[in-house]
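Supplementary material to the annual report.
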Amino acid sequence: MSRLVLKFESSSLKEVPLGTRPVTIGRAPDNDIQIDNLAVSNYHARVYSEAGSLVVEDLNSLNGSFLNDIRVERAMLKDGDAILIGKHEILVDQVHDAALPVDGWRKAPAPRVNETMILDTEERRKLLEMAAAAGERSQLSPKRLRVPTLTVLYGLTDQKEYRMSGKLTVIGHSKMATVRLRGWFTPSVAAQINKHEDGYYLGRGDRVPTLNGVKIQGLTKLKDGDVIDVSGVRLNFLYRD
Amino acid sequence: MHIQSGARTDLGRVRKNNEDCYAMDPSLQLFVLSDGMGGEAHGEVASALAVQTVLTHCRQSENSRATPIFGESSPDVSERTNRLASAIHLANRKVFETAASNAEQKGMGATLVAVWIEGQRLSLAHVGDSRVYLLRAGSMDQLTADHSLVAEKVRVGILTPQEADASEMQSVLTRAVGTNSTVEVDTDEQALLVGDIVLLCSDGLTRMVTDPEIASTLLTSATAQESADRLVDLANENGGVDNVSVIVLRLDEKSASVFERLKIWKRHSG
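Predicted assembly:
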């Protein structure tokens, strides 16, 4: 059976057998291989098998994962490979057959398949911590505290700039529109912008808006500086301080 | 805009009880669906109580603006959407208290999805892994984010969608109505367009029928009720391992005919 061996300098710290589940590596305590070092991201990398091959994948870590000294995002592994994370090394041992230490290997509890159940509070707490850790990573984004706005570049609207505060921003003639279009024959909902967990998405209304000169195909995520054209109005999507 | 609705719930081919439940109030344009859990017949109790509570609370709030709000209101969404979330908070409390006062029903709970349409605005609130989809201009988007262990892991980035689909943990929820004294409710809003199709469904549909199959069924049916029937049939043909429930809403240009309005009026005056 194959395994991963965590090493620091010359000493072996831990062994983790490779099963069907991915093995996660990171600083957070709920990783299969936890490395308590600030150079290591909370969820740094993982190793899993795909179509019979073992794969290492970097989870967008700050300092990267290295396979035999080359920085990799995703790479196939073979016996004897060394993955370097921070100052720790993880060796791939695919031919080891001896009895395995099982500590540190948290096997998922086997649920009754198909029977809906609720996660117990302990598990939920762990998951929330995990989500919080992921949020912590995204806080590195400089846009985090900036307010999304729509600035009118041209066209007939009731204001020149709109701060987007709600989950739904309607552009149109409708009473519920945030960006109220004036003028004749303007549609009640020309386009709409929906706030999702990871950002703002532009969608069609009774018109299909154009984003940076290209007609959108379905919901399209907005980036800082995007230019939206719809119903004779041009808007600039900007994150402002 | 006129809403044409169709719905169906079915035991499936494996289960002995139907723990799903739905309700529609066409005059209020309120649609609610729930999938109960908790062994024996208690899942049924939970889902029925949850659905009924949402309906009652929303009706009350229409008659009296003084109806209390449960849970916290969000400034990000309309009053109507906050009201819908309030109804789910109240449903949570009712199911939780019922379970707490009856030893046999301990641990029972339910998912809950609810949509409420006013003019062109769709208000949406949900807890659990029952879903709402919006089919617009040929493409279908899921408006709800499942509160299940695998879905949350995918969102955090530690599981791929393919691994999630293959996972044995799919039935593990991270949030449900009635399993805790309080619950976090997700809300969303959409501006509806003529031609839109909205689907509310329990996981008994989405585990058995793929998204493309769902979309093509919705697009090729003549009526909302035909869509609902065909979707349930498909789930059963593909194995029907769980209860399956669907509500289909089609947003048509024409307003309700005099005949339909009479039917609605008769139902509510009777």
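Chain B touches chain A through 49 residues (CB under 8 Å).
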